[in-house]
Predict the structure.
Amino acid sequence: MKLQMGKLLSSIGLTMAALLFAGCSTTSEYSSSVMRAMIDTRENILATGYSVISVQMNDNPAQQRLLSIRASKLDAYRSLLEQVYGQYLDVNTTVGEMVVQSDTFRARVQGVIYGAKLVSITPVGDDTYTVTLSLDRSIVDDLRALYIDQMSGKTASRAPVSKGSESNTLFGLLGKLAKQDSP
């Protein structure tokens, strides 16, 4: 089972890398700029979220700006989740008489992010905010190890598990890691 999971993850990784490098442009400039936007100089993962101010449900302009900042921060966390755990895609294509009748995609991302640092909150134009978050590479490695251990039914090797408690769940393990890492 573990070997199959490893093969599956490596196949997905190779496919994603091939799509990333062969994707939208043939210039290496574009590929390198995309990678620079996702990884900073210390090998941390960067994620940027976006939100429009005027669509926020409030009549007070100041409150709309605060809600927009909050929404763009959540969008940045979603982007971090995608980079750490990947996306679950549900695709349904209907073909009739050798013609595509319908093509639907649903994407889902789920996971836990801790330790993200706020890099910037930036207004863009008059009606948009961007928030950029950074996640340390060691935390990414911890999150991925916890996720793989959780998916395989094991517990993380760094966090001791006591029987009869919630510490055998992903959230319990993350709590224990946070306690171990705090001074």
